[in-house]
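Can't paste images in this forum, so I'm doing it all in text. The chain is below; anyone willing to post the predicted structure tokens underneath?
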Amino acid sequence: MVGVWTMDELVERVRAALAAEYPGAPNGRVRDVPDRRAIRWYTTTGLVDRPAGMRGRTALYGPRHVMQLVAVKRRQAQGHSLAAIQAELAGASDAELAAAARVPPELLSGAGDAEVAAPGRPRFWTAAPATSSPSPSPSQPLVTEVGGVTLGGGAILVLPVRPEPADHAAIATAARPLLDLLAARGLLVPTPDLSAARDPLEPTPDDGSPS
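Text version of the structure:
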């Protein structure tokens, strides 16, 4: 199966091919592995063929591009100048490129994808999308039941659960210092004195009614 790759995939395939029998660049001015900018420049100068095709706006590359790039880097590692490499490889046949590049056959086909993925750089397009919990629908708001205890003076203690009747006395005792503080600061609603309240139906002494 003939492989067809994007530029990023082409770079990774060249990296994998150079992992064997490649001493590295002879000096700091030459990259060990060509990047996207270098590949475009090689294409402009004729060291590398133009893309084999397009998928929308994405350029596609094939096995010949892999061999050309690997052959260029191997020749550079041997100390050859780009001018000398271009004179040697310009118009070279696939057989001549294969001899110069020595690329493992599996990297010239689509079967070598597993070997190409760089360590620590997973092929994100082959991974299943991560699942996430569905968000609550706007028509179905998230409702949580809470419990409340009236402490007096308008203060209400809100709890994440409903307290049992046996809890009320303990809560009232624990809340007394807080209520005293709130009352001292005037933060509670005054509680009416029910002992002084009169039944509205009870007649007053001076209304003329019999006592």
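Helices lie at 7-18, 36-45, 63-77, 82-89, 94-101, 113-116, 165-184. The chain has seven helices and four strands.
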